[in-house]
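Annex B. Sample input.
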Amino acid sequence: MNRARAETERGRKRMDGLPNSERTFSILNMRSVPPDDATTRARIRDAAIELFGRDGFRETTVRAIAARVGVSAALVLHHFGSKDGLRRVCDDYILAEVEKPGATIGNGEKPGASANIRDWLGRTDEHRPWLRYIARMLAEGSAAGDHLFDEFVAYTERVFAEGEANGSVRPSSDPHMRAVTLTAYSMSALLLERQFARAVGPTAAGGGGGSGAEAAAAAGAAAAGRAAATTGAGVETTGAGVETTGAGVDVTELTDEVVAAMALPAVEIMTHGVYTSDDLLRATREALGRGGEAP
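Annex B, continued. Sample output.
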């Protein structure tokens, strides 16, 4: 107990230069926690995900997170021990949420998989704080971002290992590097979301006419509503990832329509690959001195 308390105190002293009175409060009142303890903890976690994603881990202070929730900085440290401890909880929460669809979608063989995919693809705005958090952590080039990436790699490697065992995933010459490569490809959508949004365009979601065009039009109308504060002349970007010009509305971040447009080509690549022959694979094996390996 004394060791745990000492570690917690060291974390407190590192964070934000809290005054002794607040540190003393946190130590001496470990049991004086509001009845809605679990809810308060979740609200602190969600505020941290939002602020870490918006301002970065280094720039976000415990005080700022506490102010966002309307609690004291000491209470934040009571729950999480330090800012690093809070970040680890954020990581674990996001990873757990990302893993949830696997239970209801799997490799597409689960009952109701299509409906569950449709539901997941339609929740981009709900997931946006997580997306920004992941992107910011990775872009910062910090140990925190490295840890988060490694956790996603471990999850991907585990999923593919289970797939190999049940016959739904092809074996790999290097399972770990396959997981690293596919994780990096997946994360690129978060770091290059503007480019993905530009490729889809404001009217191209869903492949053009019909329901896709209607969905894009609805997205454009919603985006225009979020961008109501912008002027018709020139270009201005709002916090909603929307740029307006005199010609209309361009989405500059991931939306439900952008994610839906990306989904099918990505799954096609995962399922069927790209090339119709293994010539390039064989040539690469030979170039690396591994020509004797089985296809």
